Amino acid sequence: MSDAAYDPETLLVGTIGRPHGLKGETVLRPHNPAGSDLARVKELILERANGERERRTVESIRRVETGWLLRLVGISSRDAADTLTNLAVRVSRRVLPPPRPGEFFVEDTVGCEVLAEDGSRLGSVASLFWNGAQDVWIVREGDREMLIPVVPAFVREVDAAARRIVVTWTPDLDGEDTEGEPR
User: Fold this and answer.
1) What pTM was estimated for this model as a whole?
2) Which of 54, 77, 106, 124 is deepest in the core (most CB within 10 A)?
């Protein structure tokens, strides 16, 4: 996920993958395979790299091992499906159940202030990415950038509504010694 502003209306749920078959189906690769059941979603918002968004009606969607197989109204050929490859997929927050206590949508953390447990400011979440094992926050403060895994070992508190995160983290964990010189 690139640098982005918090969007209170939609939530990024995945990316369109390769076409599947010849009749316009495509693979939807979810960012959280164990996350919300997208089978009840009737409309998706496709987002291009330039931020342009387009609402599309879902004709059919079904879960498969690699994510979801998806057919959108108006997409009826492999070539048409191919034009959607790599587009970001968003949904209206209204169609998803809210996070349970102690849970949060990781996308909601973009822009949040990040504090160490002692209250010192580390920066703010500029963006995040999936490294294959977990989400990772890119936290920036001035010229300094820290990569903080979004895992219980480091994350102590997330209050997305208050735009605040508390983590167990010190500068020496991100490749600097106490003098601020790279190791």
Assistant:
1) 0.71
2) 106
